[in-house]
Specification:
The chain is of the alpha+beta class. It is built from five helices and ten strands, in the order ααββαββββαββββα. The strands form two sheets. The protein has a six-stranded mixed β-sheet.
Length: about 230
């Protein structure tokens, strides 16, 4: 049932990530589990990989609290929108602790098989805040297309439940115009994005999105790769 699948993903966020319970990892994740996190230096595989991944985050933010904001389920897939808050007290991917309270918004796609999570894709942004209005979104997309005139966006996955639809997509393009103050590099980039929209009477009335900005900046050489 869809609700059972949602509960399984919530256990991952609430018991494993928030409470730090690593004993139950084998009950939640398949042996061939794969996690694709563009912020992390490499993909995570299997229950042991999950333990390493969770430990890295909890060393950096030991009081991290994940709150599920919304979930959508269809077939063998669950999409979850969450917010995490905590204090940056330990080194993370080469970044020294700041002691500051941080807020992160995220969306993840989970693929479940046989009552366990088999594969996941996650996107998150470290600066949670109010959603951009239509005009700012329009200007942002215009600036992106000017910088990457050959931009291509391909849908990688989507599910729907009720009045909400979730998409996972891949963007590619060549940096031929100024972007965030950076002169054209001629480099070709690829980045992943995720969106959840609520539709009413044939129109989008609410939107939540995550985009791998950090990955794009790394590919352009603006920031160093994670360590």
């Amino acid at each position: 049932m869809a609700e059972d699948k949602k509960v399984l993903v919530r256990r991952w966020l609430e018991e494993t990530l928030t409470q730090g319970d690593l004993e139950g990892v084998e009950n939640l994740f398949a042996r061939n589990y794969g996690l694709h996190d563009p912020i992390f230096p490499q993909d995570v595989y299997g229950p042991q990989g999950v333990k390493w991944y969770v430990t890295a985050y909890r060393v950096a933010v030991p009081d991290a609290r994940f709150v599920v904001e919304d979930q959508i389920a269809q077939g063998d897939k669950v999409v979850t929108r969450w917010t995490a808050r905590g204090t940056h007290r330990g080194e993370f991917l080469g970044i020294s602790p700041t002691g500051e309270e941080v807020t992160v918004t995220g969306i993840e796609f989970d693929h479940l098989v046989g009552g366990k999570i088999e594969e996941a894709w996650v996107g998150y942004h470290p600066f949670a805040g109010p959603m951009l209005g239509p005009e700012r979104l329009k200007r942002g997309f215009a600036a992106l297309h000017e910088a990457f005139p050959d931009t291509r966006i391909a849908e990688a996955d989507s599910i729907r439940e009720g009045d909400r639809v979730a998409f996972r997509w891949l963007m590619s393009g060549t940096h031929e115009g100024e972007f965030l103050g950076v002169a054209p590099t001629g480099k070709r980039i690829e980045a992943m994005g995720m969106d959840i929209v609520r539709v009413a009477e044939g129109e989008i009335v609410e939107h939540w999105g995550e985009f791998d900005v950090m990955g794009m900046l790394r590919q352009l050489g603006i920031i160093d790769p994670p360590r």
